[in-house]
Amino acid sequence: MSGALRVVDLFCGAGGLSEGFRQAGYRVIAGSDQDPDAIATYEANFPAARVLCGDVRDSALREQLAEVTATADVLVGGPPCQAFSQVRNHTRLIDDPRNSLYREFVRAVQNARPIGFLMENVPGMAQMGVKEQVQADLELDGEYRVSAQLVDAADFGVPQTRKRLLFLGVRSDLGTEPPSLTGTGATGALQLVRLPRGIARSEESLRSGYAVTARTDEVGEMLAVRLADALDEGLVSVSQAIGDLAQLHPGRRAETLETGELPVATSAYQKLMRAGCRAALTNVSVPRCQRDTVLRLAGIPPGGNHRDLPDYLRARYLSGAKWGPSNGSGRLGRSHYYAYRRLHSDLWAWTLNTKADCAYHYSVPRSLSVREFARLQSFPDRFHFTTDCRNGILPGRISGGAAHSRYRQVGNAVPPSLAAAAAAALRLSLVDPCDRAIQIDYPLIQM
Fold it and tell me: Taking the model in full, what pTM does it have?
């Protein structure tokens, strides 16, 4: 088989998997999701693809999906899977009614018979018994050979630790095996540690109290050198990812920034992300920052969290303004503990969630813009996040407003660079040997 393999993305969200497969030289022909805001983003970034919005369990949408998946070479998707209790109650994963969306993905593979597929899910599915059940379901009584692998996005050039469980399937009649992904292994060798008082390894760590440490062997030392190298795209720190956007200020309302206003890129990753973004950078508005939050961030070093706060900054209200929920104790409550966390410039970010306050900038007292979220997820700057222009309640729309939707879309996505690595590995198992040069020579970021 030669040429671009055709991909349909089920449960596509904003399109992280699709973007990765596109970067790996596949042709994305369709995407489906029930969230109209995510679909608006998908449609804006994949104008040549057929876009289907609705519940995949609906018979009409199921018929449309059957039509497009019949022409696909590869199916991809990350169906929500709510129940992991089947090991204890002896209910098979696919039979649990809470996992009906997972069942739809298996059904789509069974009906379309693509030559390959990728299904991703949360690491919790790797627990004993569950992963094996999923593999058995996806193998379809021997029609497919399926591998399961737990990977961390930071090992594949993403400036964020994000573990995902990938199921890669290859149709058995191809006579090949599903691939295994090989990353840098940096997440097992490098970590951020709190330095004891009086100990510092650099001027920066002396100021912050946190420093990146490497495993004490040759590989660990080599990976530390790679991470510090701004020209290395395979290991990327937070500052290498978003350092050129530090000038964004809290409360910035403008959604665009002319590319000519950007400083010179200081890392290979910044150059990579900017590729194909011509006139203006989008999604660069920044939420306002409460005065209390600014005061607390001043007491938290880069890489730190609420545990670093001195006692006087643990009072619920510091500047007199009453805002947000209070537990009545006059102190910060448990719900605040995940909010006051500052990124460290020299390591990748922790796993981002769907809220703007899940991570604060390492050098500026503010939360991040959607564009900085996207950079830490490895979405290129040309990828624009938007929402459905219709107001009010829509089928499938998640409440919270347009701004929150954009953060949620980024936070829920599969990092494209991880998806691209999986797509490249999968193609080696799908194409004829004489065609493999086509797969190997792909641009990471397409214009």
Answer: 0.92
